[in-house]
Automatic annotation (TrEMBL):
The chain crosses the membrane at residues 221-243. Pfam families: Diphthamide_syn. The keyword Cytoplasm does not apply. InterPro entries: DHP2, DPH1/DPH2, DPH1/DPH2_1, DPH1/DPH2_3. Its cofactor is [4Fe-4S] cluster. This is 2-(3-amino-3-carboxypropyl)histidine synthase subunit 2. GO terms for biological process: protein histidyl modification to diphthamide. Keywords: Iron, Iron-sulfur, Membrane, Metal-binding, Transmembrane, Transmembrane helix. It comes from Oxylabes madagascariensis. Pathway: Protein modification; peptidyl-diphthamide biosynthesis.
Amino acid sequence: QVALQFPDELLADAVEVAGRMEAATGAEMFVLGDTTYGSCCVDEVAAEHVGAEAVLHYGPACLSPCRKLPVLHVFGQQPLDVGRCTEAFRELYPEQQSCVVVLYDVVYAHAMGELEQQLCPEYPNVIFSRLLCGDPPGPAVPGEERKFGRRFLVEAAGGLQDYAMFYVGAEGLALTSFMLTWSRCPFSSFNPATGCGRRETLNVNRALLRRLYLVERARDAGVVGILVGTLGVAGYLTVLQHLRELLRRAGKRSYTLAVGKPNPAKLANFPEVDIFVLVACAQNSLLDSSDFYRPIVTPYELELACNPAREWTGNYLTDFRDLLPGACAYVELPAAVPAAEAVPDVSLITGKMRATHLCGPPNPQPPPSTALACRDQTRALAEISPAASFLESRSWRGLEQQLGQTPISKAVQGRRGIAIAYEDEGCEQP
């Protein structure tokens, strides 16, 4: 039993492909439609519902490693004019000793061998990245970069910052993630659809300022909603637990929400949440939240806000697996700091004082008491529930019974007709 996963634009060909695959292999094929999260991720949950033993993923992919099922990626082959791409590269990099790393969208991987044959004899310092599907076979060697399902080896003494980046593909989330992650490298791109090459003028500093502003919003937040944006990327359960513990140590309350693809209407149902953090693949984590009721940050930005041991180094991380124990960018939470010894901090947005100390491990639950005590149930619930606390602060809380406060009266006949003109209302003459 094999699951076939198609993006929305390729679902029209799904039936014919499934029929040919069944005739050629004899295996039972299932077509997965209406993916809950981004189509670039493998939908392992839907595949497990039909008992699939493997997944064939068609179309663009983020190449995030999966947890359980074996996956075969079929990227497709979008047309690429290799000659025009070579000319655009020469125009952008006239110096033949230029150090350049070539990145590309997965749909153009079939043409990279021909492009490499055209450029490498002329440009000896050009490095072509390779696609990396699934977990890497072993530890990285010195100078090797492994990010976004790409792998390449940097041989320059100064490291990656001495290289420029040349991207083959259209403008999109993948290119934005590349530019933020390797922000110290100048970028250029070639769009195969238009046949034009250009130097990328995306203001990375402006984008980073926006993200750092969201970090400050996360520091001010008291209630954080953890959005589950993937159920298939390896390590998502571990990072959920890591974020919960991080927020608890920072003295913030958290909700864990599985809402599928986030949109403003869904998240507006949680007005008590001050900010959301999205746990998704590297390409879908940078969500533009300008239209949302509350901002959305990445796990890395939440770590910058809540973990005093993590400092901004200029390197932006979009893959949440880099934050987990054992990863290259993992930073352990420091020991608990008593509230009396905490250094006071002032919000750069509201100008108010805020707590910055870290709590210790959770205290053991005290033994249950048998003594009777009178307690306000609403306020007791507000102490443990952010939703109840938010409701307590509102002046109108919905329909209330008001028992004993409303005078008793007999039933009377109400108005008849429609709201624009009841029968007991006089008609005005024009």
